[in-house]
Amino acid sequence: CRVIDSSILLCTINAQYTMKLLLSLPLFSLVSASPVSADRVVNPSRITFDALGRIDNDSLLVKALATDGLVSLTNIPGFKQSKRRLMSNLHTCMLDLGDNIVTAQHFDDGTTRRSFATSTLPEVGAQPIKSLEDIPMNSNSESCQSFQRELSSFRSSVEAATNLFSQKLSTEMRAYLQTPLMSSNVDGVVYDSINEVVAGGEHLEHFHSYQKDNSLGNAGETTIELHTDQGFFIAFTPGLIASSNDPTKQMKLSDGFYVQDRYGTKASVNFSEEDDLVFMIGDGANQYINNNLIDSKGAMPLRATPHALSFPAQIDSSDVRVWYGRMVLPPNNALSHGMGLTHGEVREALLDASTTGKSISLGCSSQDMKAVIHTTRHLSGPSVILNCTADELFCWYRCQPLDDELNTCSDRNLTLECVDSQGLITDPAQHNGAAPACYNSTVPLSSDNGDAWQGDSHHDDTHADYGHGHDHGDDGHHDEHMSTESTSTGSRLFAWSMVVTFTISAILSVIS
Questions:
Q1: Beta strand 28-30 with 10-12: parallel, antiparallel or unpaired?
Q2: What is the average pLDDT score of the chain?
Q3: What residues are paired with 206 via a beta bridge?
Q4: pTM value > 0.90
Q5: Domains by residue range for the chain, with CATH
Q6: If you ran DSSP here, which 8-state letter would residue 154 be given?
Q7: 10 Å Cβ neighbour count for 353?
Q8: Calpha distance 343→182 (Å, rounded)
């Protein structure tokens, strides 16, 4: 299973694949690594925004979500126009910002995915997209200006639709659920309804642009393999084909989105122009919704939907696929069923496990599923996804080897950290000449501005004990980056400030 806390958690039954993931998103369970071909076509159940607001308890959502695991919300006021204005400028804005700012991930089928990432926090609200924060509205990028002008309205509409969806689903299922749905480690704090679970969790948001290089990889290969998201649900816009050369070009719907139905059959989803926002159930429903159903009342369990993405070669090589998704996670302080740990602690345990590359079943709905965690940099920023081994530490934007001395830090009551030339713990994703070192301070990391990370205020020259012979090597970017955090207090706290993207041994991506 996989987490995002901005971290992500993934669960897999078959863990024999090679992973590639990036920041983001998301949470998934790997189902299969075979090429996707549709045996049938699925037309999603559709309901208008106004109708959903009027219906009291018709079980309309539950019937659709128990059958196919997804439902489309249409006619969201003002959303269609805002969505198209925003998404038509997404890819061009990313190109204008450049690869030093925008995250980029490369898939085996020749597809490159660029991403913006952010989140909406409980009681705090929408967070900014870090990549865009320092771009003034009077910058030379007309696409970024246009994107930013629509961003607030777009996210507000998604927020309103997500709230309405959770309220109505909560109403429809209330009589069939025992309470509380989730308890917490805070005295007096429980989550009695679906609406309270959704309101109390972090919502991870990603904007993706997929571009195909037909000269690379296998054109018939699946871009993102069949998997199930690990969050409660995701709200996403169906993929659109936009031009990388002309933001004014009319966009069209993208095909290539597949689901696996309850009979195990792969099906192509037939989206239409009226589909504004699609809600799809993840594996989290099995962990804190379906396990609370009162069987005697004939309740229908929500169906977590395995899905995959194939981005075929485009006739016009300048065409790209643009997509947005909002992943709903459980509250951090909510207790994970049957474990005695909070969901936040489960994510931290998964982070700790990433130092050894172990597969564990924490955070998954089935003990047959195993989790492997990897972390990436900030919610938004250059791609940092290096698959570090147990004998390496992610530091200075790369996996650095650990010598025998550094492997004995814990034996000397020291912690292994990424330390800069001044002997201070530093952000391992920075290009600053840092190196792994044994560290003798347990004072938490601090940050003045979210970017300049530093250790404690001690200036004792002996508190950092560096190993020997670490070759920093070339300072270039890697196609596949995976960062690994140490199990020390400092690294765990740092990891909480990063967008942690986990992935199972097979595909890591934040939904299609």
A1: parallel
A2: 74
A3: 117, 325
A4: no
A5: 23-339 (2.60.120.330), 392-477 (no CATH)
A6: H
A7: 18
A8: 11
1-25: average pLDDT: 37
**Counting beta carbons within 10 angstroms of the beta carbon of residue 153, is it exposed (0 to 12), middle (13 to 18) or buried (19 or more)?**
middle
Write out the two tokens for 33: 């690594």
What is the spatial distance between Cα 9 and Cα 120, in angstroms, rounded to a whole number? 18
**Element (DSSP H or E) covering residue 294:** none
Nearest C-alpha neighbor of 324 from the set 83, 92, 21: 83
Rounded to whole angstroms, how far apart are CA atoms 451 and 346? 26
* 68-82, 119-133, 150-164, 203-217, range with the lowest pLDDT: 203-217
* Burial of 264 (C-beta count, 10 Å sphere; 0-12/13-18/19+): exposed
Position 499 confidence tier, pLDDT thresholds 50, 70, 90? very low
Q: How many other C-beta atoms can be found within 10 angstroms of the C-beta atom of residue 133?
A: 9
Contact present, 242 and 47 (Cβ < 8 Å):
no
User: Count of CB atoms within 10 A of residue 174's CB?
Assistant: 14
Cβ-contact 236, 278 below 8 angstroms: yes
Task: Give every CB contact of residue 448 below 8 A, 6+ residues apart in sequence.
Answer: none
Cα 58–chain centre separation: 32
Closest C-alpha among 376, 491, 344 to residue 26: 376
Q: How far is CA 76 from CA 58, 80, 88, 163, 505, in A?
A: 20, 7, 19, 13, 38
Tokens of 83: 């969505």
Name the residue with higher pLDDT: 137 or 436: 436
The pLDDT of residue 481: 29
368 CA to centre of own chain = 22
Query: Taking a C-beta distance cutoff of 8 angstroms, is the pair 200, 121 a contact?
Result: no
Tell me if residue 39 falls in helix, strand or coil: coil
